[in-house]
Amino acid sequence: MRRKVAPDSTAMVAGGGGGGATEAERQEQAQLFSAIRNGEDLGPFVRRAFASGRPESLLSSLRQFARSKEAEIEDVCKAHYQDFIRAVDDLRSLLSDVDSLKSALADSNDALQAAAGPLLAALDAYLEARSIAANLAAALRAAHLCSRLFALLARANEHLAADHLYLALRTVAAAERDLLPAAPHPTIRRMLLRLIPAVRAHAERKISKEFSDWMVQIRVASRHLGQIAIGRASAARQREEELRARQRQAEEQAHFRSGSTTATPTLRDHSYSLRVEEDDDWAGDDADDLAAAAAAASSDGGDPGLDLTPLYRAYHIHKTLGLEERFRRYYFENRKLQLTSDFQVSSLTPFLESHQTFFAQIAGFFIVEDRILRTGGGLIARPDVDALWETAVTKMVSVLEDQFSRMQTANHLLLIKDYVSLLGVTLHRYRYAVDPLLDVLSKHRDKYHDLLLSDCRRQVSEALAADKFEQMLMKKEYEYSMNVLSFQIQTSDITPAFPYVAPFSSSVPDLCRISRSFVEDSISFMSHGGQLDIYPIVKKYLERLLGEVLDGSILRLIESGGLGVSQAMQVAANMAVLERACDFLFRHAAQLSGIPLRIAEKGKREFPLKKSRDATVELLLGLLRKKIDDFLLLTDSISWMADSPPPNGNDYSNEVYIYLDTLVSTAQQILPVQVLRRVLQGVLSHISDRIMGLFLSDAVKRFNSNAVMGIDVDLKTFESFAENQSHLFAESDDSGANELKLALLEARQLVNLLMSNNPENFLNAVIRERSYNKLDHKKVVAITEKFRESSDRLFGTFGTRGAKQNPKQKSLDALIKRLKDAS
């Protein structure tokens, strides 16, 4: 479509100017239109119009230009509207073409279906007619019998009646070999030519029907056989695990008797693995899975269906008939079809409920094939069995991949894994390559443990939420055994008196049970999977459980802010017990993995719950500091310019002392010495910092020696408390009481400096390093500037204007001056 060209500006000027416009006006109008098109400034034109007194002419020109542009816009819009209408018409015509094409395709399809139906019916009729024709020809040939063959044929009839097909075929073969070449009459020859194939066809049909019946029976029996074989493998594994459990128990007893971490060398210095030796007695007295399945079926009063005689009879008859190769192919194709049908997984039944039947059917199939391979006289070849097994492995791997990818429950995955591993153990005895199945299990190891960790995370959260964080009471010995001895978290081998108050709360044995269950489930998944050394992998997942789940859950509990002092103290005590429980878990994992303790306990292992343990101590310290701060509010009543020192110290010190003494009496029953020492050091250090803060506070403008002597009594009270705790640290290598007193060292050095008769000694480097090494110069200046001797009261110098200055105050002033000069 051609767009209309906008009219030329000169034309608009010529046409719109009117007959009275001068040449100058037309030029000026053309310049205006050109400026508008180029987007130039119209200011000069406006100024010129007003300067000449003709603004109406400019306004008229602008209106004329606007009208020309409106006409152009209208033409463009009309042109595009016509294009849209034509596009819609084109689409409608295209839609009708599509409908006609669709109708043509439908007609073609109907014609094709109508043409193919009669052809298929004709083909079926042809096949049926050809089969009938063959049967009629055989019947016609069998009609001519020879009277001389009555004896042989009568004997053949007897054999056929007695179902002795092989003897009947031998008889017929003798008639064919001896009588057919010497037949005196063509009628006899025709009789023999018809009779002999008929007998053979009868034998073939008879044996084929028996073989078909056997195929149906063996499919049902194979499932039962697979279940029996896998059950015997499970029983053998259970006996082996019981033997190893007894061995582990002997190791633990030897370990406890020795009192050390060195375990007695054991016979079980290997890990779980598939049995590669051919042990005929590994599963009991009856070493044959087929015989065991037949015995089990007979004991139930049912038809065992495990007799391979019909198969061997059919093979022998077909070999006699010269149809050996055809029967081999027939057998292989039918068994292949049976195996293919066994691969069908029902979508209506959950795989968790049908997996045992699925795998038992396949196991029974290949156990039967192995027996036929070894005793069938060449009925099936090893390459054929291997081809069937490769097909089965590929399908089982595909099914497992699909089912595992959709499973969201660790226990379900473990159940299927256990049965698959038993399938592998069973078929490995028959020399089938089960590595691809084991590879699938290994491939989904991380997913299983992620699901297991998720379950444990939920259980841990529930256990912590249900715990009131109070010491656990055990009234009976079995409770002590179940909650303490089973996890080896006892501190003494002596059984306590009951009722027994444990130093931990109820969540500790719950967390131990969850962790032990995780270890056992992890070992159960990892063992019997073809991997020799599973302990490093189990250890890695156990570290994830402790580091991510337990440590993270306890950290979230601590960060929630809902714990008080007693609860935080109980959590800290729990952490010490959990540290022993972690050692037990690693030992337990090593023992279940078949690793001797002397190997598993080599090297120092870092505590996996270190973050939550440190966070618990910090939380307890924070709560205690806050409590101390509440008591230190009583310092507001201290008289900093007292006339005499308080004889028993300030009130807050007695309150803090009583609280700390009560705290220690409770904490020493549940907290480890190291944790209690760290807590007391933190509390006393906080008290020292607060005392320093009192002197530095803006609320204390000045103080005298009596106030300092009161603080000195307070410090002696706290130092006495620290010395009284020396019995708690008697077994430690260093002096715990001295460490506690060192926490008050900064405040003590400050008080000693203020009470010294010659504080200027602080400037001596040797004395400062020995007696005032914790004091900061700036703090000393700020505090000593506030110090005033008791005689230096306000207006106290009026009566002693000519008296000599106090030597101590003089020394302090010199100290302050020199410290200021130094800074």
Descriptive account of the structure:
It is a single chain. The protein has 823 residues and is an all-alpha fold. It is 70% helix and 0% strand. The chain is built from 29 helices and two strands. It has helices at 9-16, 23-38, 43-51, 55-142, 150-161, 165-178, 186-258, 289-299, 309-320, 324-342, 351-375, 382-406, 410-428, 435-443, 445-466, 477-483, 507-526, 535-559, 565-592, 597-600, 610-631, 651-667, 673-696, 705-724, 736-742, 745-755, 765-771, 777-784, 807-822; strands at residues 473-474, 500-501. The chain has a two-stranded antiparallel sheet with strand order 1-2. Helix 5 packs antiparallel against helix 6, helix 15 (445-466) packs parallel to helix 18 (535-559) and helix 19 runs antiparallel to helix 21 (610-631). It is flat and about 165 Å long.
Keywords:
single chain, 823 residues, mainly alpha, two-stranded antiparallel ribbon, 70% helix, flat, disordered N terminus, EXOC6/Sec15, Exocyst complex component, EXOC6_Sec15_N, EXOC6/Sec15_C_dom1, cytoplasm
